[in-house]
Amino acid sequence: MKKLLLAGLITISSFAIAQKMKTEKGDLSFLKGQNVVNVVFDYSDVKLMKENMTESQYVEKHSAELNAKVDGNGESWKKQWATSKENIWNPKFLSIANTVLTKEKNPLRFKEGVDSPYTLEVKVKWIYPGWDAGIMKQPAKVSTQLIFIDSQTKNVVCEINSQEAPGDQWGNNFSNEYRVGEGFAKTGKSLAQKIDKEVK
User: Fold this and answer.
1) Are 125 and 143 in contact, with CB atoms under 8 Å apart?
2) How many CB atoms lie within 10 A of CB 71?
3) Which of 75, 58, 59 is nearest to 67 (CA)?
4) For the residues 15-19, what does the mean pLDDT come to?
5) 18 band by pLDDT with thresholds 50, 70 and 90
6) Would 9 be classed as within a structural domain?
């Protein structure tokens, strides 16, 4: 039993340090003096799982698996999945990013649907929902391309690649959607910390 618990902790720890956030173009200096950045989320090109399935392929496959266990559960899950972006993932990113900035006394805030000189496009590239079987579990992972553009000219001023942000909570979390949400929270947290460190 102890070996099983240790293996679980090692698995979680390996994922917890897996996120990589790298600036690929420009820098964040343009954010100095800014109070708000408009944010848009783009899921149009997202892939899921190690097989890099499209979202529709993943939804159909997972729904069929759930229906095979309990008839009707797959259809119920489809509805949960369909609302996850607006109800869980996007708010998690925004909330945690703004919370970190507030704690650091940084006036910058990220908001959807606002007029701002700059817009952050969160292009969601890959999602792994993870799993939780009680004693053993694997966190979700979320990879995104964070693209800051000039809202008027549409020119890219900074591009950041965020790879495999881990999504997990203490204790058990049996919801794929909420585990993924924690990956978005981690992405928002890491971006806010990067901004606080680099924009003086």
Assistant:
1) yes
2) 9
3) 75
4) 55
5) low
6) no
